[in-house]
Each structure stands twice: as structure tokens, then as C-alpha cells.
Amino acid sequence: MLAIVGVAVAAAMLLDMVMLATGMRQSFRELLLTRGFQIRLAPKGTLPFDTDATIPDVASVTATLRQNPDIGEISPVLGGSIHIPIGDRDVSASVLGIDPSVQGDYELLSGRDLRAGDDVVVNDRLLAALGKRIGDTISVATGYDPQTRSYSAQRNFTITGTVRFLYGAADQSSAAMRRETLKQLNASSPTRAGDRASLFMIRVRQGGDVENARRWIESRIPIVSALSIATAIAQVDQRLAYFRQLAVILGTVSLFVGFLLVTTLVTVSVNERSGEISVMRAIGVSRTHIVEQVVLEGVVISLIGAAVGLAIGLVTARYLNSILSAFPGLPMAIDFFLFQPIAAWSALGLLTFSGIVAGIYPAYRAASLPIAETLRREAIA
Amino acid sequence: MSDGPIVSVKDVRRDYRLGAERVHALQGVSIDVARGDYVAIVGPSGCGKSTLLNLIGVIDHPTSGTVTIDGRSVEGMSDRESTRFRLHNIGFVFQRFYLLPILSAAENVALPMAEAGVSKDERASRARELLKYVGLERRIEHRPSEMSGGEQQRVAIARALANQPKLLLADEPTGELDARTGEEIIALFRRLNDDGTTLIVVTHDEDLASAARRKIHMRDGRVVDG
């Protein structure tokens, strides 16, 4: 029983590692495709929102993009930070300047979306930090100068709704307003003034070739890096290689531990039943059938372990996911341990295979038992 | 089928290693057993009785000499051949019953038949008949753990008879049974022999040996009488 639990723990670990190795990638892919934008443009050499760098002259970039018939919607996004004085304290938050008709950054949870220039939507965390409600007015400032302890711009906004930012981190207070409004707030900033965007999100028309469009953009607009879902995933893969390596190493160790446990378990079982096996051979059961039965025993132990391990693995994956998803700066929607049937099947396949291999040595021992000698030993014992 | 003895052992020697020592378990044993005979091999522990039975049962090979069963020399048989030969020609009963604990009485009896390729229906029918023959018609679906030692040994005897062997070999079949249960097994063996089965029994049990038609006495790896 304890050995089966051991196999189950190894199976759970293996499942978790398979989920970790494949889940983040899949989760990130699903996140990027949530709103159907297949291409993202970031300042040359950067990833979206990786730095404070911006793409200048949004109108000109947009006009160039419009020349490609495959390109459908274009959503420029300007990022920044805002400060909201509340009494004697100051609440900081990140802000996105967007066009509400084509935005792909948030989902409205309550209230209404942005309409007027002085509308702002916030996430629940910011709303709680402000102690405000939908319909309340807040004063939003930008361009904080620590030397003079003053802001370069300040303006009143009405909170019109609460939203969930798709790419926002769990610990992040965020708001969104119209990009034109944020542009005005940044007007006196030496680095952020002008018609700028931190990111363009682009939807390719149905039937259009995403990779062709991406290459076209990079050739026509040299100041941007164009990332398709595939290239973004490749970039993320590169950055998350550590996690995958860890998952592969721990998964391999789990598989090996499971393999050793099953081998030990079946070998002990064969040793305990050597008399029984010898009698089976004596009454005419072939070596092949003995091998089949012992290997089957290994597979059955592996499968029972896998079934129990699946349940343990899912529970531990959920727990670990809740810890890792709360990691500062990571999008809330990213799952580290994403359950996919393919992960479960892969783990099951690996365990079944290891169960077969684990049974080979004890099966060989069982089939090679000298019948007469074993029975003589058993009689003496 | 050969007309001669069903078992013919000629000048058989069997040596094996026990640690650094070489043990001469059999030192030139020759016996014949006629068809339909009931032979008890008796003698003190370590005299070579079980070794001789193993050679007759083709689960061991002689160091020298010849063993012929039903006219066929077992010399040079491959493992596959000797396994098939045992399956169809020889039934075994051991001191310990060695039934498969997860199988019912009927399934244990049907096991050699399954190995011989007997159809499922026939296996079930023959297993029922055999269990009835050994007096266990009410224990067909019971598992070994639900049966007494005597009942388990009777299942083992039914299993040994599954493929209608020409020869039934038993090594201390009453060794783990109390006197009363032992008597039941002795009676069952006598009935089996009366019904035509050739029996060779290795035993220390005087009652079981006395039930046989013929006794072979062994000492120090040799036949001294019989």
C-alpha cells in the first residue's frame, strides 16, 4: 500500500512537471489570443511593456499599417503611471491609454466602458485602494517630479466602471483611459509628450497570413519589433527555459523514482511468490505467460499509482499555481500548471511505459527460476 | 501410446552444488512404473525422493542416465518442449497447495486448461466436473483463503487432473494436513488410481505409502528396495 502511495506521489510529480513544462506556454498562447490580436508591435528590440520605451508618431505608423490589406483592426496602447492623491496619501497605479472601440486589454466587470475624455475605468484592486465607487470623481496626476514634489499635469476623472486587465499582475493597481486623454496628460513630459504608443495590437483579417503580415510590418516600419503569437511564444520560451528545464529534470527524476519503486515492488512480489511461480511452470504455464503476468503486474501498479497520482497531481498543481500566479509582475491570467488532456495522457503513457520496463527485470527473474531448485528451497523453508 | 512402462528411469545420476559442496542426490537410480500403477517412494529426508520425482516430472534434468515418460525420452527437450510435455502429460500435487489466491477454485482448476487452449465453456464445465469429483462441488466459486487446507489440496488435485494427464505426481501431498484430512486425500488418491490414473507419490506418511500398490525405498540417493 505504501509503495503504491509512493508510485502515486511520483506520478503526481510527473503529471505536475508535464503540466508545468507545457502549461505555461499554452496558457500564454491562450492569453495572447484572448481578444484575437495576432500581432503586437513594440519599440524595436523590446518586448511589449518590457521597458518605458515608446513608438513615436502613432498616426504615421497607423497609416503605414493601413496600406496592408491583410491588416484589420489596429489598437495602439500607451502605458504609463498615474498618481491619485487621496487625503494625505498618494495612490500609484499603472495606466493604459487605449481606444475603447478596438481595445484588447481588459474586460468590463461592472459599470460602463470609457466614452468621454474624463472617464476612467479601474481594476478592483485600485478601486479598493482608493476607497471609491463607480461614479465617484478622482483627481489623476502624471509626471511626478521627486525634486519639487509636484506633478506635471493633473485632471479630474469619473470612475465609470471596474475592469479586469487581461495582462495585469495580481498585485497591480491599474486604470485605463482614452489614449488621447493620456496623451494630453503627458503633454508637458519631455520623454512621453507627443503622439506615442507603447504597443500596437493588430488583428489580421480572416484569411490573411499572420507571418507574412508580420514580416511586411518589420520591413516597412523599422522602428518596431513585430511579434506574432508564434514569435512571442518563442521569446517567452526562451525566457522560461529555466522552468522547462526544471520541469524536465524533476519529471525525469519522478519517472525514475516511480520506475524504481515499481521494479522493487514487482521484484519483491516475484521473490515472495517464487514457489507459486515455480508450480505454475511445473503444471505447464509457459515462460511467455509468466513474463506477461509479471509485466502486467508492473503496469497495473503503475496505472493504479497514476490514477491516484492524477488526483494528487491536480490538487498540488492547483495549490502551486495559486502561489506562483501571485508572483509580482506576472499576468494574473497566466497559469503555470495548466491541465490539458495531453499532459495527463503523456504522464499516463510515460508511466505505463515505465511500468512495462519496470516489469521486465522481475519478469525475467520469474521466467528464469529453476523450477526444481526453487521448489526444493521452498520445501526446506 | 507406448505399450511399455509409463515411466522408465535408467541409471540416473543427479548432482548439484550446495554452496561449495557437490551433492550426489541420485547415484544410479533405475526404476520402471507400469501404466495404472500406484507407487509410493519412501525413505529418510535427503535420500533423493523429491529429486527423482522432479526428474520424472521433467522439471529437472539428470546429470547422466535416461528418463523416458510414455515412451518419450526427456533428454534434450527444450524448455518450451518440456513445458508443453508437462502440460499435457503430467499432473503435479505439492505439499503446499500453491493455488493462485486471487482466483476461485474453478478458475484455479481451469488454469492449465486455458494454457492448453481449451475453450472457455469446456474449461468451466470440466473444472466443475473435477471439483465435483474431489468433493468440492459446493466450493466452486470460493477463493483459496476461504477454504481449509484439505479443501485447497483437493483443488490442487483437481488442477493436476485438468488436462487428463497420463501420470500424476505428488510430493508429500499430506504433509501440511491433519490426520483426518490426510485420510481424505489418501482415499481420493486410491479412487483416482482405481479410475485408471498412474500415481507416483513421494511421502513420509506411512498411511499414504501403505495405500500404494508398490513401495520404492530409497536411501542415500539409491533405490534399496522396490
Question: Gist?
Answer:
Chain A has 381 residues and is α+β, with helices and mostly antiparallel strands.
Question: Helices and strands in order, then pairings?
Answer:
The complex is a heterodimer of chains A (381) and B (226).
Chain A (H helix, E strand, L loop, with lengths): L1 H32 L5 E5 L14 H9 L4 E16 L2 E10 L7 E6 L7 E5 H7 L6 E9 L4 E16 L8 E5 H7 L13 E6 L5 H11 L3 E5 H11 L1 H32 L1 H9 L4 H39 L15 H28 L2 H10 L1
Parallel strand pairs in A: 3-8, 5-7
Antiparallel strand pairs in A: 1-9, 1-10, 2-3, 2-9, 4-7, 5-8, 6-7
Chain B lengths: L6 E12 L2 E13 L4 E5 L6 H8 L7 E6 L2 E2 L5 H11 E4 L11 H11 L4 H14 L15 H12 L6 E5 L7 H16 L3 E5 L3 H6 L2 E6 L2 E4 L1
Parallel strand pairs in B: 3-8, 3-9, 6-7, 7-8
Antiparallel strand pairs in B: 1-2, 1-4, 4-5, 9-10
Notes on the protein architecture:
The complex is a heterodimer of chains A (381) and B (226). Chain A has helices at residues 2-33, 58-66, 124-130, 179-185, 210-220, 229-239, 241-272, 274-282, 287-325, 341-368, 371-380; strands at residues 39-43, 71-86, 89-98, 106-111, 119-123, 137-145, 150-165, 174-178, 199-204, 224-228. In chain A, helix 1 (2-33) runs antiparallel to helix 10. Helices cover 51% and strands 22% of the residues of chain A. In chain A, strands 1, 2, 3, 4, 5, 6, 7, 8, 9 and 10 form a ten-stranded mixed β-sheet that branches. Chain B is of the alpha/beta class and 226 residues long. Chain B is globular, with a radius of gyration of 17 Å. The model of chain B has no long low-confidence stretch (mean pLDDT 92). The chains are: A alpha+beta (381), B alpha/beta (226). Chain A binds chain B through residues 275-276, 279-287, 289, 371-373, 375-376, 378-379, and chain B through 16, 50-51, 54, 57, 59-60, 79-80, 83-84, 86-88, 91-92, 94-96, 98, 100, 111-112, 115-116, 159-160, 163, 171-172.
The residue-averaged pLDDT of chain A reads 87
The averaged pLDDT of chain B comes out at 92
Number of beta strands of chain B? 10
Shape of chain B: globular
Number of separate helices of chain B: 7
Encode the helix/strand succession of chain A as letters.
HEHEEEEHEEEHEHEHHHHHH
